[in-house]
Specification:
Length: 190
């Protein structure tokens, strides 16, 4: 089973990202990520044997982490501007996201290899070829995106590949803890 661990993005932000991806077809042959599939990958696990699924879920259930905010703020490309294969939306530097990634890595130690590096991004398009690289890069630099959202869970997701694209199924969701406890006090007036 092909699996990954990810953070879902609110629908209203996904809609804005899809609107941006519609503009990208002017710059070459691109395959835009479907709105339902837009996410932030915490860790790609690849093929996982069925016998390891229960252990994987049990380890992820033990992760304790507080809710936090993320902010999308820029666009870029992988692997580099001279060889564009992926267009992504970037995240404002987030210590919390890196710490969550580290918690996941720690929880899965011994079961999966550790990531060489963690690139905080949201893949929005895959690129077959670019007609005019300079215009594409110029467009990506001009696009402003300043949306903030709360992360209150992450998910274990199954990815099934087909000729129609990837189909994602959430196998299990893991809720994060609220940071603050609110105390209610009563004032009595006599």
């Amino acid at each position: 089973m092909r699996l990954f661990i990810a953070i879902n993005i609110p629908l209203e932000i996904k809609k804005k990202l899809v609107d941006i991806t519609k503009e990208l077809i002017k710059f070459g042959k691109v395959s835009n990520v479907k709105k339902a599939n837009i996410h932030i990958t915490i860790k790609f696990l690849d093929e996982v044997e069925d016998k390891n699924i229960d252990e994987l879920k049990n380890r992820l259930r033990k992760i304790k982490f507080n809710c936090f905010n993320l902010k999308l703020n820029s666009f870029g490309v992988f692997p580099n501007i001279n060889f564009i294969k992926v267009i992504w939306a970037g995240l404002e530097d987030s210590l919390e996201l890196r710490k969550l990634h580290d918690k996941v890595e720690g929880a899965l130690a011994g079961l999966f290899d550790k990531d060489d590096k963690f690139a905080e991004h949201v893949t929005i398009s895959r690129v077959k070829f670019v007609k005019d690289r300079d215009k594409l890069i110029g467009f990506l630099k001009k696009v402003r995106f300043n949306d903030k959202f709360e992360v209150n869970n992450f998910s274990l997701i199954k990815s099934e590949l087909s000729k129609d694209g990837s189909k994602y199924t959430v196998l299990e969701r893991y809720n994060l803890e609220w940071k603050y406890l609110y105390w209610v006090s009563a004032i009595y007036i006599f």
